[in-house]
Every structure is written in C-alpha cells, then in structure tokens.
Amino acid sequence: MRQSWAVSSVDDEVMRTSAQYGVENLIIYTGPGTKTLPGSKEPLQRKKRPDYEDYLALISRVKSFGLNIEGVEGGFSLFPEYSDIIFGGPRRDELIEEMLDHVRDMARAGIRIWGYQWMPVSVWRTAPVSIRGGAYGTAYDHSIRSEDPEWYPGVPDSQDEEAMWKHLEYWIKALTPVAEEEGIRCGIHPDDPPMPERGKVPGLLRSFDAYKRLLSIYPSDYNAIEFCQGTFSEMGGEDIYAMVDYFVRENKILFVHFRNVNRQIPIFNEEFINTGYVDMKRIMRVYRDAGYTGTFMDDHCPMLSDDTDFPGNVGGYRSRLFAQGYIQGLIESVTKEQEYGGPVRMSQIENGSVS
User: Fold this and answer.
1) Which domain covers residue 298, as residue numbers?
2) Beta-carbon-side half-sphere exposure of residue 254 (alpha carbons within 13 Å)
3) What's the structural domain count of the chain?
4) What is the pLDDT of residues 92-137, one digit of tens each?
5) Is residue 355 part of a domain?
6) What is the DSSP secondary-structure string of 143-173?
7) Cβ atoms within 10 Å, residue 76
C-alpha cells in the first residue's frame, strides 16, 4: 500500500514538494474531455485535445523528479459538449470514438489508470461548516439543496433512471474492450452526494448494489472503481468496511480517495481525516487484510486559516500535508502489524525485536 495525491500542475514547486515529503505517486487531473496540456493550466495550441506526445512529455517530466504517475483523473461528463454520451443523444457514437482515441493515446504513452465521473451535474455541496479549531469543511444538507434552481447545459428536462442505466451500459461495453486491449484500467467515481436524484438527473452510482450492477455489465479487471471512500461512506444504510472488503477482494479498486465525513446522507459534512465517523485505522486494516496494493490519496481536506493554495484537490499546503502525514503513518503502522503479527508494543522496540 502506498501514498498518492492528486495535482493539477507538475511545476517545479509541486514536484519538489512531492519528492521531499515522500509522496512518490501522483494522480494527475487530466484525461478525456480536458482542453489543457496534461499537468498544467496551459491551453492547447492548434489541436482539439491532449495527445500521445503530450502524455509522453508529462510522464518524462514526472519521472525526472523520481516520481511516478499512478493514474489520471478527469470526468468528461462534467463538460456539456459530451452530454450525448451520458444521455444517449444523437452524437453519442461520434463522441465515444473521440473518447476512446484519447484513452488509446494515454495508454500507449504509459498511463495505466483512468478514474472518471458519471456526474453531469457535478459534485453538490451547500455552505461549508466550522469544524475543529475554526477550520471549515465542505458540507451537504439535502433540505437546502433538494430544490435546485440551477440549469445545467446539456441536461434534458427529465430522464428515466433505467434509460440512464442503458446509456451507461452502452458506454461500458464500448470502453472496456479498448481498455483491455491497451492495458489501462478504468473506473467510475460514485455520485457525490449519493442521492437518488440531483438536478433532475438520477444518481445511478449511489449504493453498494449499484456498483455491483455496474461491474456486472462487463466483468473485467479493466471495468473497476475510482474508490472515493468519502462518498461511499456517505451512502445511506451502507457498511463502509464491508464495501471496502468486498471490492478489494474483487480487485476493483483502482485508487482510494481517503477522506472522512461525520455521518451519512441526507446531511453530512467533511471532516479532518481523523475526526469523522469512519475509524481510519480500522479501515486501513481492512484494505490490508483484503490484499489491497494500490494508493491512498488525500481528498477534500479542510480549509485552514491563512493556508496557502496547493494546485490540485481541495485544501491548501498545511491541510493536505497533515492528511498525507496521517496516511503515511497509518500505512506504516498497519504494515508493521502484519509483519510482526499484531500491534507493535514498546517492549518490542526496547528489546530490539522491532526496527
């Protein structure tokens, strides 16, 4: 088990910080649907999308700092021009071919994991709330957000849930054979928050059973999950420990968004990594015992007073580094437990039986 974090930039500062703190595996925000050079905010020049050469350059730069690209994360579903894929519109086949060509370029350059979303109305939150020490965590209250006044470009006035599942099935059956052929594992992030409907759009991936249904569409190691532990732990009535155990043993977890929340839907807020309702050491043991070998990334870290922006996920330098230190400590702790047959005691350290 290893650490990772998600970044939108691979500039010198981010690369040095990653190397110095021992976060050697990076998840890059890019992929099909994006219109900037991978690992930067620089717009593309005279071409429609990032290509094979762009991904080769990205990988070369990251390797020059002694780091590794664990995968890329990017959701074409967030861009209205690709809504026909989600909703079965007239340009669906044309747009799917465009996405598949992009996937081929990533894979042939050396990208081995792509995590993406199936959320045309994006992530929903209400106003942040004050948590420990006056920091702020993102929050969701369905009684406030349920009657959403926003209009989302590309979203039809109404959509039947079973029809939406048919569109998702069509996509998975097109993508997965290409992913198998090219050697790139692909997986979908759950609906966040995992509500039955948001913005008149059914939330398909909102439960344990929904993910079993997704994975049954095309049984393959290349049809997998971008496992946002935070969102799975928001799912009403579900057991987060049981879901982790099941999906690890099925070899379906590509990488983990390792974050915590205070409770399940319909009202929750995100917490510091060690103050939510999920026992993070217990769940790290579940990953270990089930045989997980992938990475854990910090995610949606609290907003601290006077923190400094860090390009990538929610949270500044101090907030994200706190989470990374906690992740590193947990990985080392549960790994030592396994190595020495149980919790390591001070007496073992003092007599030299533990190095």
Assistant:
1) 2-350
2) 26
3) 1
4) 999 999 999 999 999 999 999 999 999 988 899 999 999 999 999 9
5) no
6) HHHSS-----TT--S---HHHHHHHHHHHHH
7) 22
